[in-house]
Amino acid sequence: MESLYAITTGILSASGLYLTLRGRTFPVVVGLTLLSYAVNLFLFSMGGLTTNGAVILNGEGHYADPLPQALVLTAIVIGFAMTAFVVILAMRARGDLGNDHVDGRKLDEPREERG
Amino acid sequence: MTLLWIPLLTLLGVLVPVFTERYGRGVLSLATATLPAVALALTLLQIPTLLEGDIPRVSLAWLPELGLDLAFRLDGLSLLFALLILGIGLLIILYAAFYLSAEEASGRFFAYLMLFMTAMVGIVMADNLLLLWLFWELTSLSSFLLIGFWSHSSEARKGARMAMTVTGAGGLALLAGLLLLGDMVGSFDLGVVLESGDAIRADSRYPLMLVLVLLGAFTKSAQFPFQFWLPHAMSAPTPVSAYLHSATMVKAGIFLMARLHPAIGDTALWGWIVTLTGMATFLYGAWFALIKTDLKAILAFSTVSHLGLITVLLGVGSPMAILAALFHIINHATFKGSLFMSAGIIDHETGTRELSKLGGLRKAMPVTAVLVSLAAAAMAGVPLLNGFLSKEMFFTELLDTPLLGGLGWLLPTLATLGGILSVAYSLRLVHAVFFKPAKESPPKSPHEPPHLMRLPVELLVTVCVLVGIIPAVLATGLLDLATRAVLGEALEFHLAIWHGFNVPLLMSVLALAIGILVYAMHSHIRRLARQFAPVDARRSFEQGTQTLVAATQAITLRLENGSLQRYMSLLLGASLLLATLGLLDLPTLAGDKPSQPLDGVLILGAALLIFGAVGTAVTHRYRLISLLMLSVVGLLVSLTFARFSAPDLALTQLSVEVVTMILLMLALFFLPQKTPRESTAKRNIRDLLLAGSLGMVVASLNYAVLTRDMSSIAHFFMENSIPGGGGHNVVNVILVDFRGFDTLGEITVLALAGLAIFKLLNRLRLFMPHSDGEGRLWSPDRYPMILTSVSQALLPLALLVSAFIFLRGHNQPGGGFIAGLIAAVALILVYMARGVEWAQSRLDFQYQPVAIAGVAVATLTGLGSWAFGRPFLTSAFGHFHLPILGDFELATAMLFDLGVFLAVVGATLMILANLGKLTTPHRPSKEPATTTPGKEKKS
Predict the structure, then answer these.
(1) What CATH number does residue A45 fall under?
(2) What is the pLDDT of residues B762-819, one digit of tens each?
(3) Could you tell me if residue A75 is inside a domain?
(4) Which of A24, A53, A58 sits opposite B728 (nearest CB)?
(5) What ipTM goes with this model?
(6) Is residue A73 part of a domain?
(7) Which positions in chain A touch B672 (Cβ < 8 Å)?
(8) Which parts of A9-54 are beta strand (E)?
(9) Structural domain of residue A76, as residue ranges?
């Protein structure tokens, strides 16, 4: 189970990172979202993978680690705020510059294949 | 605490000229002089304490974690230097009042001067190595400002830059050295360091530390081969040269060597480096002082030479040599300070400093001629003047030192050679300016300066003469205190003019006789010197700087070419490298924790997750499909959380997923529907390789962690959740109680992001497509009937669920975050089903205040605990019994959670509702929307 979980996290990260390396804003935003899923899964697993151990205390029992959960919970919400900010920034950039390239230059500026 | 006032007064003195400049030069200089005069008086008042054998010290904790204290001391060494700095500083203020021309910004000049004085006083009084270094850097900065004071002149700017670069680089070396020293001793306290000399010298890092500290001292005190900055710093106004470059700043390196001598001196390494460097500097400076023709250049090189002399004495390091070094510091400050000021007077009165244009000034300036002659004679070491005494001691100590063993005769010989050169250049200075007939007349017809301008020179020359005649009366007390501070014990000595016929006297006589001879043959020497191409330190320095700047610019341009993709790939490449290096350190990838079994559901879930993720990446050019794939991943991540015992996370992820998808759909409407194919194959392969390798690293890391046992601090939260936080849901208790401060920060970020988006949407130029990516027109049926009716029924239900989730959050999965998201989703559904017009007329309020109110409620809850004398965000809870409802628990944490709830609802709706309003008259803009339809195909 652990290896499958790790491989899944790895593939999610790789897909997200590939997208963040693209040259247009929307795929980059999608890539960032995907990457934040991967990071959340990664962080969440730092407390180990526990089955049937939700941390609702009632007597003795086998519980998961609550700390990574609390951290990831806020990370999810903040992740949403950041996605929203970046995607609106992308819209703004398109509005102001007339194109949706990540380099943020106007359309009439010469653009050679760089990077 | 009196001690603290000495540097504090000079620091306050920085402000005085700024405020008094408008009242004219006289008031300005008088007011500026007041505070250092008081500081000088305070310093003098400490002398009785010192005489009793105590060392006044004061220490205030500043950054105790770093070992940095605001600690000052005033031992004999500090006293000697503080008197020089404050005393000569006062004379310089007087002198500068006449020197600067009327239109110059004298307020700024005096402010810089006071800043410099503070820095110097700080260095000599610091009782903490780090504090000392801080003031050391401050001298570099303030001297940069002073040297470059005439910023209209290119020479001044270049000279200032060179001084800054050399002394700044030395300062960095010194910092490294002092940090090493502090690490060896275990304390930055000067008292402790000075007592740990034996441990320091035995440490294996001693040579490295010594070289670093000496680099700092040598650059500051212009020792060979770093001497080149000093002559170029002469482009400063003459009061600056007189103050910084003869009396004080260049002595800072000397001071440091004397200060640390008990801790790091007295080894063979110290002796070799310091003595030989000093000797090289002594001869180098003396030679160039003899052949330069600019008055200030001659004085600059002779300063270099005399600094070398003092350094030699510190290198020799015997008690008498230390005494001689300290004595010569005083003597040099007096005669060189007066010579510099006289040079300024001559420059001021004749308009030139070139020896060839000067001559015969004895008639026009008889008093100045006498003063300069006396000071120059002191510099040459003529008997009955102070320079003679210390030079005599210098010769004596070099005869006695065991440093070079069999070659021991070399040092006194070289010293005599230096003495000869000193006599020659001193004689030349006096003769060429005042006695030799002038070849050409100077630009201005010379006359004596105003008497007050000459007063500082007169005072200093008087000191030279008096100390030279009755040294035992004037200098013994101060020197006794200073040597005691360096040596740690009192030294028996007797300053006298006459020691009988001995070898040092012979050396002095030889130096005088041959020196006069050398000056007589001066034209031959000039001819000899002209055969060597002059090395212009400034030009080669500037060339070096330019080359360095060009090289760094080339590197920067390669790294920073304006392409975000380049930055991203560099960033990822660097993280790949670092993470890989970390993984290489692991003995094995898998730990020893047994693996948990797999089942069908897990495999299916993982397969779907992978499918969704890879699908998102593969279909990224068709943005809508890519987005749908992404939503698959989001849903499955939520299920993963549910599967591994995290119901709170699953609920949060699910509701965030809904909001995110709506947001991205909305945004996509305003963006191109497809991504053009523009990446080259090479680019694609590079990105695939980079992303793929990083994915593998992430997977390996994750696996490595998952297969190892770990200790967690979770048990603390488990044990304290119910007794301390009053809640059974530990995750929620952590969020609103244990780590409430973090949560407060996070909802603030959320609200800020909402506000930032609100501003970004303001006056946004929109691209409004008529059709979707396939060219189909958008449906005119804007509000589908079923959705409309369902949403209306759903809204109260959803809000009820939200309230329920909120209330139970402390003990069951739920809480402010999730409840807020559910409420937001329910409201957004109304917007989607009915349109902005309909919703706006019924929900007529702004969301910004809601979000801000949320943050405010949470903050006030936290502050509330202050009212009960508890730390910020302490929670309280209690159980209440209500009829019908039964047992009921109320916790302040719930109020905090309410703040979270409001912030989440407000921020989410601020983002989504405002985005949705873009196409309607309600959009956040004061101006009519400038929509430009049909531009879609251009990108």
Answers:
(1) 1.10.287
(2) 888 777 777 776 777 777 666 778 888 888 888 899 999 999 999 888 888 888 899 9
(3) yes
(4) A58
(5) 0.93
(6) yes
(7) 24, 26, 100
(8) none
(9) 2-49+64-97
